[in-house]
Every structure is written in structure tokens, then in C-alpha cells.
Design a protein that fits this description.
It is built from ten helices and twelve strands. By secondary structure, the protein is of the alpha/beta class.
């Protein structure tokens, strides 16, 4: 049995930058908080928490200290209220997310109806909605796009959550274009890293019997990778750590592919690969000699 890793695994640039900035602040013994998880990986967040990062759910919990804005960005309304209260900010927003925010704000200012392709519950999308303040819609797929009430008098613009798939984004654009709005502007704000990981996962999943997608279950880009793999591989599973690998998955399997979400550190990917290899050796040692 062979074990193959996608070329791109581990942290993406934006996540690596966010974690580094948080670690630097913690090394200076600052009292640091984050509104929700700084990145969508439980193991990394727990590690930072042990070093002093306090995760809060409500901004009103923060009376003083420093707030780390997560890599997913923050609503401009919430940010303004934080600055007004005199709380210091460390902004780790991913540059790709910042670009999407700037585009959303500009389009809204120009009077466009802004359609965001993404998950309405995701913090990145919630912030984008506030940047596009005005007539803004969030759709997750072409079915939801088809239900939008648009007409020939609408000036419409479309942007994407940065971890969207090209295929899903293109399908939404096609669906909205068919409504024949007065004007349509499309901005592909999908992150280069997300696009590359999905392309690699798509290729690898066609070449193996089993795909393991390593990452947080609350990570949008990891779940997107799982969707990509499930469409093309005989079997695909999302796991957060090596302890979740089940022996039954490896029965009668000749090849295993491993990819990871952008918030998954290299050390977790390595542990998963090592565990798979260990299980393979164990399985082989139990087979009778022919």
C-alpha cells in the first residue's frame, strides 16, 4: 500500500502569519483575547490558549487588554466600537480576505447589489456583509442563487468567500447571469492557496482508493476539500487528528492520499501520515505468508 501526500499541506500563508503574530504578542506577555477562534483548528487554538490567549464569544466580555482580530476578519462596526473603547488591536486578517473586504465596500459605495457566494454563518462572510452594507445577499450555491429576486433594473456584483470552489462560484455566476440584470460585475476573490489545494486534492483523489482530509470540522476550506474528494475518490474522510483513523478504512485499500486544510499545522499532517504507515505495517504483519 502506498501513502501519498498532496504537494500543498500545512498552514497557508494567511494562517501562518496570524499564528506568528499571536505568538509574538504572547511572547511579550501581553494580555491577549480573540473574538472566537483566531483560526479554525482546535489543536492550535488550545496550544495558544495554554500560552495565554483567551478566546471570548462576546466583545462585551473584553474590558481592557489587546484584541487579536482573527485571520477571517472582523465587521467594521465591531472594530469601530472596539477602537472607541480604547482597546488595542492586533489585526491578523488574511490579505486575501482584506482584498475581498475592500471590493465589497467599494461595490456597495457604487450602488451595486452585492451577492456573496459563501456560508452565511462563517465569520469571514458575516464581516463581508457589513462591509457591503446596503443591498447584499449571501448564497451558498446555484439553487439559492436561483431563488434571488433580481430583475433587469438591478446592477449586480458577485464576490466569493475566499475558500469557495471555482466550480461552485462559476455555477452561481451562471445562474445570476441568466436573470439578465442591467449590469453584472464579477470578482473572483477566491484565495490562490484554496484554489491550489482543491486542484491538488481533485487530482490526487482520482489516483488513490482512500482520501484523508486533515483539518478542523469547523473549517470552511477543509470541508470544501472533503466535498472535492468525495466526488472523485472511492472513499474520503475528514479527521482532525491521527487518533480518528479507523482500521476498517484501510481494509482492501491499495493507496491512501492525504491532504489538509489551510489551518492544519504540518505536525498534525505528519502524525496522520505516520499513523497510516504504522497501521499498514501492522496489517501486513498479520497477513499469512502465501
Amino acid at each position: 500500500m502506498s501513502v501519498r501526500l498532496a504537494k500543498k499541506t500545512g498552514f497557508c500563508f494567511g494562517v501562518k502569519r496570524a499564528v506568528r503574530m499571536a505568538e509574538e504578542a504572547l511572547s511579550e506577555k501581553k494580555k491577549i483575547h480573540s473574538l472566537g477562534s483566531i483560526i479554525h483548528n482546535k489543536q492550535v487554538v488550545e496550544s495558544l490558549s495554554r500560552r495565554g490567549l483567551k478566546v471570548i464569544k462576546d466583545i462585551n466580555e473584553l474590558k481592557k487588554g489587546v484584541l487579536v482580530i482573527s485571520s477571517h476578519g472582523l465587521s467594521p462596526k465591531i472594530r469601530a466600537s472596539i477602537v472607541k473603547r480604547g482597546i488595542d488591536i492586533i489585526d491578523t486578517t488574511c490579505p486575501f480576505v482584506l482584498n475581498a473586504q475592500k471590493i465589497a465596500k467599494r461595490l456597495a459605495g457604487e450602488g451595486y447589489t452585492v451577492v456573496i457566494v459563501g456560508d452565511s454563518a462563517h465569520p469571514e462572510v458575516r464581516a463581508l456583509v457589513d462591509f457591503a452594507a446596503g443591498r447584499v445577499f449571501v448564497v451558498k450555491d446555484k439553487r439559492e442563487a436561483g431563488s434571488l429576486k433580481l430583475d433587469g433594473n438591478d446592477r449586480v456584483s458577485i464576490i466569493a468567500q475566499t475558500t469557495q470552489s471555482k466550480e461552485n462560484f462559476a455555477n452561481v455566476v451562471k445562474e445570476i447571469s441568466a436573470k439578465d440584470p442591467k449590469e453584472l460585475k464579477v470578482f473572483d476573490t477566491i484565495c490562490e492557496d484554496a484554489e491550489s489545494r482543491q486542484a491538488q486534492a481533485k487530482k490526487l483523489s482520482r489516483q488513490v482508493d482512500l482520501m484523508l482530509v486533515v483539518g478542523g470540522r469547523n473549517s470552511a476550506n477543509t470541508k470544501r476539500l472533503l466535498d472535492v474528494c468525495k466526488k472523485r475518490s472511492g472513499a474520503a474522510y475528514l479527521i482532525e487528528t491521527e487518533d480518528e483513523i479507523e482500521d476498517s478504512w484501510l481494509k482492501k485499500i491499495r493507496s491512501v492520499g492525504i491532504t489538509s486544510g489551510a489551518s492544519t499545522p504540518d505536525w498534525i499532517v505528519k502524525k496522520v501520515a505516520d499513523r497510516v504507515r504504522t497501521k499498514i505495517k501492522k496489517e501486513a504483519s498479520h497477513k499469512p505468508n502465501s
